[in-house]
Automatic annotation (TrEMBL):
The lineage of its organism: Bacteria, Bacillati, Actinomycetota, Actinomycetes, Kitasatosporales. The chain crosses the membrane at residues 39-56. The keyword Transmembrane applies. Residues 85-125 are annotated as: Disordered. Keywords: Membrane, Transmembrane, Transmembrane helix. It comes from Actinacidiphila reveromycinica. It comes from the Bacteria. This is DUF3817 domain-containing protein. The keyword Transmembrane helix applies. Residues 85-104, 113-125 have a biased composition (Low complexity).
Length: 125
């Protein structure tokens, strides 16, 4: 049985957001009510991310291992899954457009490629 990646995406974002709330609470007021409410929610989201990643058929060993990283493991696992599925992960279509513009600049110079990448919204390497 395979898990839906949409559920993993939601849990990964809840995990990161709840960790941020816990850290801000720790650094500022350190209210017990916030810790007692958000702490278990973070723990559940973390465990759900790990379990959901393990249930995905497309997840390899590294993807399953990276899911164990607290806070960002779910987002990193999603990125690896997107790349394995043939997507560009977090780079998205802007990187593809920049690569196409750079490949078709004709001159082969650095100025044309850099300008094409900048106009596509991606800074040159």
């Amino acid at each position: 049985m395979s898990m839906r990646p949409a559920a993993l995406r939601v849990a990964a974002h809840v995990e990161l957001l709840s960790l941020a709330v816990l850290l801000v609470n720790l650094a500022t007021a350190h209210l017990r009510a916030v810790s007692s409410l958000v702490g278990p929610a973070h723990g559940c989201a973390y465990l759900f991310v790990v379990g959901a990643t393990w249930r995905l058929r497309a997840a390899d060993r590294r993807t399953r291992a990276v899911a164990w990283v607290p806070g960002v493991g779910g987002l990193l696992a999603l990125r690896r899954l997107a790349r394995a599925a043939g997507g560009n992960g977090a780079d998205g279509p802007a990187r593809t457009q920049a690569a196409a513009a750079h490949a078709g600049d004709g001159a082969g110079g650095a100025e044309g490629g850099a300008a094409a990448e900048w106009t596509a919204g991606v800074s040159p390497p």
